[in-house]
Design goal:
Layout lengths: L3 E4 L2 E3 L5 E7 L5 E7 L6 E7 L4 E3 L7 E6 L4 E6 L8 E8 L13 E2 L3 E5 L1
Parallel strand pairs: 2-11
Antiparallel strand pairs: 1-3, 3-8, 4-5, 4-9, 5-6, 7-8, 9-10, 9-11
Length: 119
């Protein structure tokens, strides 16, 4: 099994930045970040595969940057230009399957979530 631990969430003012971290107990093929805002469905925002190919939802391109430090089994999500619409619980999820998709059923392992609040 892969265990995931997120950190880095918090409360920030609009225009600020945060860096979320997701540390995995193993080395899954791909890790993605999802978020769920109050009253909304969970959505995928960024993902990265073992070859460090990055994928983004159209809504966050240009503001979100995902990266992976293989030596630390950690994936980072840098969020710049935070807006109140980014307020959500952010989850990282891991898949052992090759290829990339934001389809949630592809992700076997999920973290507990970290809260981001933008005011």
């Amino acid at each position: 099994d892969v265990q995931l631990v997120e950190s880095g969430g918090g409360s920030v003012q609009a225009g600020g930045s945060l860096r979320l971290s997701c540390t995995a107990s193993g080395s899954p093929y791909g890790i993605a970040w999802f978020r769920q805002a109050p009253g909304k469905e969970r959505e995928g925002v960024a993902g990265i595969d073992r070859d460090h190919n990055a994928y983004y939802a159209d809504s966050v391109k240009g503001r979100f940057t995902i990266s992976r430090d293989t030596s630390k089994n950690t994936v980072y999500l840098q969020i710049n230009g935070l807006d109140p619409v980014d307020t959500a619980t952010y989850y990282c999820a891991a898949t052992v399957n090759c290829g990339f998709s934001f389809r949630e059923e592809r992700y076997t392992y999920w973290g507990q979530g970290t809260q981001v609040t933008v005011s």
